[in-house]
């Protein structure tokens, strides 16, 4: 869902208007957002607030596309994501289960 947030931020920042398509290869995320009445987590609500802001100036489409089936732009996105994983990352100490649990609980 981070990619969707980033795409919506890009649209808002560059004030893009008209018809905008966001193609996403995670069916579960698209289905999750489609059940918007049940969304209550912070990230989901953040997405819906951005969509609400854009609704008056854009026609937005969120479309699931199958992954790994030789779709040109999906393959490009996959290669960019792989490239990003090879970039130097700052070392961060691993978190314990309790630290992860506390962070997750704080974000809900």
Helical fraction: 40-55%
**Terminal-residue CA separation:** 15 Å
Number of domains: 1
Write down the secondary-structure element order. HEHHEHH
Order of strands in the sheet with most strands: 1-2
- Please state roughly what percent of the residues sit in beta strands, choosing from under 5%, 5-15%, 15-25%, 25-35%, 35-45% or over 45%: 5-15%
How many strands, what sense, and barrel or not for the largest sheet? 2 strands, parallel
Domain RNase H type-1: 1-86
InterPro entries: RNaseH-like_sf, RNaseH_domain, RNaseH_sf
GO molecular function: nucleic acid binding; RNA-DNA hybrid ribonuclease activity
Protein name: RNase H type-1 domain-containing protein
Summarize the entry for a quick read:
With 108 residues, the protein is of the alpha+beta class. 55% of the residues lie in helices and 13% in strands.
Topology:
Blueprint: H1 2-13, E1 18-24, H2 27-34, H3 42-55, E2 58-64, H4 72-85, H5 97-107
Parallel strand pairs: 1-2
Helix pairs in contact: 1-3
